[in-house]
Amino acid sequence: MSRAILQHRRFISLEGGEGAGKTSAIAAIREQLQRSGGEIVLTREPGGTPLAEQLRALLLGKHEEILVPEAELLMMFAARAQHVRNVIQPALQRGAWVISDRFTDSSYAYQGAGRGLDLSLLETLEQNVVGLRPGLTLLLDLDVREGRARTAGRDLWPDRIESERDDFFERVREGFRRRAAAEPERFRVIDAAQTPQAVAADVGGAVRAWMEAAEA
Ligand SMILES: Nc1ncnc2c1ncn2[C@@H]1O[C@H](COP(=O)(O)OP(=O)(O)O)[C@@H](O)[C@H]1O
Ligand SMILES: [Mg+2]
After folding, report:
1. How far apart are CA 188 and CA 186, in angstroms?
2. Binding site for ATP: residue ranges?
3. Over the stretch 102-133, which tens digit does the pLDDT of each residue have?
4. 90-106 per-position pLDDT tens digit
5. Whose CA is nearest to atom 10 of ligand 1?
6. Domain ranges in the chain?
7. Which residues does ligand 1 sit against, CB inside 6 Å?
8. Superfamily for the 6-215 domain
9. In a mutational test of the pocket of ligand 1, which residue from 143, 150, 197, 203 has the highest number of ligand atoms less than 8 Å from its CB?
10. CA 163/CA 130 separation, integer angstroms
């Protein structure tokens, strides 16, 4: 029998493609959460713990040997298991807000929609290995080429996943949008093509509304 997936109100994730503005959006989220006065934990995936960051280096590094999709998937979930058990759950248990730059939705988008791995395998891993979902997920949705243009300046050496072709990233984008459409209560889709100020205002507004709804 599979375990239920717990959704936690103080757990917020940021999702979207390369260059969509996830990392830039964290400041706007933090600004809202600071009003509550509580502890805020900022973290990211893949990674978030020392061991999981080592897996990140393996996942994003380039190797002579091809990393097969199934191994990529399991390494992502191995890193996530460390992250959930050693960082996210303890933080939530002591009452902190947790913001994660990417979480399980990225696996559905990249390893599921992008690599074409079986969704039922992902669901099994999410239920049995992760067991936790954010209360709120902000999807920064952006045209693939626009995202690539933005990261071109940032990444002199694109990592292993960033080096994929545009059709891969089109499938990833569609994968994210399908998940958002399937779970409208959890997702807020933000138009990431706007100016940084407008994106920050939308992100901040979504988080403020989320906090107010939780207090009511
Ligand atoms: N709304 C925006 N308009 C234009 N450029 C942006 C916007 N948001 C972020 N950027 C720039 O695009 C690049 C990628 O942003 P980043 O936040 O690192 O994206 P991600 O974390 O989603 O890959 C950065 O150089 C950032 O300054
Ligand atoms: Mg980033």
Report:
1. 7
2. 16-23
3. 999 999 999 999 999 999 999 999 999 999 99
4. 999 999 999 999 999 99
5. 21
6. 6-215
7. 16, 18-24, 150-151, 153-154, 194-196, 199
8. P-loop containing nucleotide triphosphate hydrolases (3.40.50.300)
9. 150
10. 28
